[in-house]
Amino acid sequence: MVAAKGLKVGDFNGKSLSGSFASLFEVNPDIERAHQVQAWYQQTGGASVQSLTKAGGGGGPAPRKTLKQIRDENLGMGEKPDWVEVKAFISFIKHDATYFYVACPETNKKCLEQGDGKWHCEANSKTYTDDQVVRRYIMSVTTNDSSGVQWLTAFNEAGETLLKHSANELYNKQVNKDPEFEGAFADACFKEYIFKLRCKMETYNDETRLKCMIQGVTPVNYTDESTTLLASINEMMAR
Known about the structure:
By secondary structure, this protein is an alpha+beta fold. It is built from six helices and 13 strands.
């Protein structure tokens, strides 16, 4: 039983949860609601639980890899995508052109500009004004580790975690020539994270390339990382 506080509910692949530096976790909390849930689970085995994440959204097991291993092991070349976890730092986030898309406030689908400050969503056939639509991240992020470099694609939830601002907030800073716009991208660089990636070869404009999409991002917990490294060393020494 794990209790969590300060998580953000996202809408990627149904429902998802993401944490931040302010999130709090407690294992087996001594509170009435936790005891009720624990008793219910022991009695039913969680048989009536319904997943709020759509099939395929979370992916399969995500073994830890280096960025170089992603290419050396030809990950993403198969019929199905490969899921991996990497520890890497951000060296650059592309933001000279489009780092967001204009989305429908109801469906999150891309809206098409109609002129006169109007935007049309083809998903629900509705038109919205500029102050009604929302801007959502879709960014190219350069990451590095000791083995090499890899471009990643970050969507809205990952973008908000990395930049500490919504896309709407940064767009407004950009329009108003606020120096905090460039500052947000600069502050996001040279910080280390654990990325869960979905790797798959994709073809666009007759060009096929490996696309690694960020499905989860968390700051590095160096205590946990040290424990993992020590376990790996002990395993190697025992062979």
